[in-house]
Amino acid sequence: MANKKTAKTKTAKAPAVKKEAPAKKTPVAAKTVKAAKVVEPELFDTVCPATCACETKAAPKAEKPAKAPKAAKPAAPKTTRVTFRIREEVGAKVFLAGSFNNWDATAKQLTDKNGTGDFTCCLNLPKGRYEYKFVVNGTWKADGACADWVTNDMGTINSVITVD
User: Fold this and answer.
1) What is the distance between the alpha carbons of residues 59 and 43, in angstroms, rounded to a whole number?
2) Dist. CA 10–CA 52, nearest whole Å
3) Domains defined for the chain, CATH in brackets
4) pTM (global) more than 0.70
5) Per-residue pLDDT tens listing for the chain (164 residues)
6) Phi, psi angle pair for 64, to nearest 5°
7) Distance CA 150, CA 164 (A)
């Protein structure tokens, strides 16, 4: 038997074509798109009249809204500094109550700064007429130095001060 040599034949291959790598995508900055403004026809014509030779007519720039004027602060009512005084024993607990503090018997305490029994306090009061009393160690007393007074619903008197 004869040896048959099989010839290997080389088939010609097509020249290798290099595949091009896809182009690298460079990151694109995000673009902001402004919404188109609706322009009223009569405003549009006044900005870019029909006789204008431009191809595209730009919308007019929107005007900034006018700032509303700041609301004026309500003027605080003018007040007058009023000093209340009473002479009592040293160490007493003295308070001032009246129509200006809804008759609160502990709202405003008078002080004896020098320890002599002269108790004072100051209030800033707007114009008006006020009734008041002192509360000394729990006992309600009219101001003996005040010449103006009225009878109250309890049958006692209240001192009266008028602030102008």
Assistant:
1) 9
2) 76
3) 79-163 (2.60.40.10)
4) no
5) 455 554 455 555 555 555 555 555 555 555 554 555 544 444 444 444 555 555 545 555 667 777 777 777 777 779 999 999 999 999 999 999 999 999 999 999 999 999 999 999 999 999 999 999 999 999 999 999 999 999 999 999 999 999 99
6) -70, 140
7) 19
